[in-house]
Amino acid sequence: MKRCPKCKQQYEATLKFFFADKSHKDGLGSWCKLCKRAANDTYKETPKGRAVTLEAKRAYYHTEGGAVMQRKQDLKKKYGISLEDYDRMLVEQEGKCLICGDGPGKKPGKKKYLGVDHDHITGAVRGLLCTGCNLMIGYAHDNVDILTKAIHYLM
After folding, report:
1. DSSP string for 55-102
2. Which of 9, 93, 146, 149 holds its CA 20 to 30 A away from the CA of 67?
């Protein structure tokens, strides 16, 4: 049995009740999980705690695992699709932009992913485009007449 000095309760000395902490002889933290979580939650509400938490999130998103998680969250939040949906579309498009046929990152300064093109009114995903083509459609406000006039202008 192990006693939490914060709440004075006795608990079984296992990872079920205490967090791992290699700095202690028994390999378990001093406070029970309930007290430790409450203290962490309180700390996160302070200005310093918010700053530390934000910095930790930023550091995590710069790791490979964090970048993947952020990408998954962005795809779901912005377009309502999963990373698996994105990958399936990428395979269907043979890894190329639906308009110009370039792949991601082929030209200097290009992003390493194709952008998700979607209808700004309905939100429906249309396909994956390179940055240049996605911007072109965006600047034309998804208006076919503007794009048709641009084609005639170039001819």
Report:
1. HHHHHHHTSHHHHHHHHHHHHHHHHS--HHHHHHHHHHTTTS-TTT-P
2. 93
